[in-house]
Design a protein that fits this description.
About 35% of the residues lie in helices and about 25% in strands. The protein has one domain. The N and C termini lie far apart (about 60 Å). A four-stranded antiparallel sheet has the order 3-4-5-6. It is elongated, with a radius of gyration of 17 Å. By secondary structure, the chain is of the alpha+beta class. A hairpin with a 6-residue loop joins β1 and β2.
């Protein structure tokens, strides 16, 4: 059993490193209580997936749009934590990504990425 000091130190380590997990609802980011809790959560890939789809663009490229919970704060203490990422794989926008803070913003960002690819398609790229 951990002492109160050990529990506090583990929590402080998670806060310092920006380690988050998703709450019981599977959508709300909360600060991890320990690096062990964070590690166990991050091993479960499906728990981190927000949305994922693959389609063929007009040029015939297979394009994948993947949105996931990152588990680590990627805004480095500047404003709201960036905990979700939408990344594009394939086509002229390969490896483009954007990040956001909430599950609902991530869902919207995923749909916006698909619409953006389709509306900005340029066969010359």
């Amino acid at each position: 059993m951990q002492t109160a000091t050990q529990v506090r130190q583990a929590r402080e380590q998670c806060e310092k490193m920006g380690m988050y997990v998703l709450a019981e609802d599977g959508k709300t980011p909360v600060l991890a209580s320990s690096p062990e809790q964070w590690g166990a959560f991050m091993e479960r890939f499906e728990a981190k997936r927000v949305n994922d789809c693959t389609f063929t663009d007009p040029q015939g490229n297979s394009v994948r749009v993947s949105t996931v919970f990152l588990g680590l704060e990627h805004n480095h203490g500047e404003g709201k934590p960036h905990l979700f990422e939408t990344m594009l794989f394939g086509g002229p926008f390969d490896q483009d990504c954007k990040r956001t803070s909430t599950w609902n913003e991530a869902l919207e960002m995923h749909q916006d990425a698909i619409a953006w690819i389709k509306s900005n398609y340029d066969p010359a790229l």
